[in-house]
Write a structure and sequence with these properties.
two-stranded antiparallel sheet; about 325 residues; mainly alpha; about 5% strand
Length: about 325
């Protein structure tokens, strides 16, 4: 067997394990999810290095150092785990099990399903509380359509950030790629903002995350459109409207596949934000959210096909 694991089979096994078991709650009570580790480091460095008294150039330079440090530590850890695991069948299983910590098929589905259940039951306060767990916008005044819209937008964008992109980097570079992507994506979510406090310090995190998502985001959009049986025209037309070069692709694809409108005005901590609209149908309701979850499940299944085909090619080439 090769010195390194056959990555298509590692990705396929990791996707299957994560879909089946996720990150068990019992384990989470004992060992925090590994994404908390880079988050803690980022928070510590932000408080030390992102001081208002520092000039902009220094803050941007220190932000670049943070990204390089995160990538370096992630690559080193990934290489260490791979070396210790080896390329035996047991080693492949170990690497795949470790890789499940960078994927979120099950957890994302469960979080959105937790919004759908009270929404369909007419319990709007419970639905608002559930959607507040997965979005950053104000939720206390959302109606049924607002809750469904927030959940669908999070489902579509997180399909890329939490599943497609990590799987792509795992397939391409192994655990070092997966760990590096998750660290950069975490940094972007924590400091890659445009507000004055983070604009300079988080610049490198935001730009690196944009770069690492260029291909996966478009693949995520294509998978959602394929799984939904449509949405291609809306995706291509509306995706560039998003402020992010990547987030618009899965969101616009979901809107087009469902025949609804996503995006539009929201509020964050009482401050209104005017966002572009994706799609051209009515605002989504609980039924649209249920259909969106169905599309999501099919898109996840479609994501399993490339590593399966690549794995089969490896076998036949031998």
């Amino acid at each position: 067997m090769a010195d390194t694991p056959p990555w298509p089979w590692v990705v396929l096994l990791a996707l299957g394990l994560e879909a089946a078991i996720g990150y068990p709650a019992a384990l989470a009570r004992v060992v925090p999810h590994p994404v908390a580790w880079p988050a803690a480091l980022i928070d510590r460095l932000e408080r030390l290095w992102n001081r208002p008294s520092f000039p902009d150039l220094r803050r941007r330079s220190l932000g670049i150092v943070v990204v390089l440090l995160l990538i370096g530590l992630s690559v080193a850890l990934g290489l260490l785990v791979q070396r210790l695991a080896g390329s035996s069948l047991f080693g492949i299983a170990v690497v795949a099990l470790v890789a499940t910590t960078g994927l979120a098929q099950r957890s994302l589905h469960d979080h959105v399903a937790a919004v759908l259940a009270p929404l369909e039951a007419g319990d709007l306060p419970a639905a608002r509380a559930a959607v507040a767990m997965i979005v950053g916008r104000d939720t206390d005044q959302l109606d049924e359509e607002g809750v469904a819209k927030a959940a669908l937008e999070s489902l579509a964008e997180s399909f890329n950030d939490g599943i497609v992109a990590p799987a792509c980097w795992l397939l391409a570079v192994g655990l070092p790629g997966l760990f590096a992507y998750k660290s950069v994506n975490t940094a972007d979510s924590l400091i890659g903002h445009r507000e004055p406090r983070w604009r300079m310090f988080g610049w490198a995190a935001a730009r690196t995350d944009d770069l690492m998502n260029l291909f996966p985001a478009r693949l995520a959009g294509a998978l959602l459109a394929l799984a939904g049986g449509g949405g291609w025209r809306v995706m291509v037309r509306d995706a560039p409207r998003h402020a992010s070069p990547n987030a618009g692709w899965p969101e616009a694809a979901m809107a087009g596949a469902l025949g609804v409108s996503l995006g539009g005005p929201v509020a964050y901590e009482g401050v209104a934000a005017d966002r572009p609209v994706f799609g051209e149908g009515p605002s989504p309701d609980a039924a649209a959210l249920r259909r969106g979850l169905s599309i999501y499940r099919r898109a996840c299944a479609l994501l399993w096909l490339p590593p399966l085909l690549l794995g089969a090619i490896l076998i036949f080439r031998r």
